[in-house]
Amino acid sequence: MFQPAGSRGTVQVSVRFAPRRRGQTAGEAQPSEATVLEVRSAVAVDTVMTVSCQPSGVPMNRPLPRTIAAVTAVLGVVSLLTAALYFTTIPENPPGDGFAAGLTGLFVILCLVIGVLTLAEAGLLVLLAQFRDPTERTRQLLSIGAAAGSCSVVLLVVPMLIAQVVGGLPPAVLTSGSGIGLLLVPVGIGCSGIGAVLHLVDEFRTENRA
């Protein structure tokens, strides 16, 4: 409570914070559950002004899960197409001991695995984030898993695809991010898997409480 200069009354300002329900996102919050600011003036007439605003703990520019899932799905398709492209370069009767053809075959298998996993991570993110209303923690884990899968495709598959299309790239460019790309594959699987498990646990607890 304070008294403005040059006035005979007092002004009382109070701020109330209403907690958000478990599993409720920022877009689903009702105005009554947002931050409420009340200003009461005792100069002449008791006047109440209520302002609803978004809680400060919610980021304003958070990327939508649908956008992350769309980019991840596109990169998953790119990985599968790269596997098909390299598969056509394997000769039926490879010259020499077939070592080069064997390496190409291993790369084709790697692209297939990464492509399938990336599409699965994108589908899981869309399924849970858009239709099952997960908690913010689960949504973040699913988004991180999909983003890690996307980055693994960018670091492992895209340079090889460019090399096949343009006729070759320097070895330093092809191998610069391969280690990080391989590391991101289990990171994406782990984050998406943990997010799915946490969502199942949250649903189980909600059903028991009901």
TrEMBL record:
The chain crosses the membrane at residues 68-87, 99-129, 141-167, 179-201. This is Uncharacterized protein. Keywords: Membrane, Transmembrane, Transmembrane helix. It comes from the Archaea.
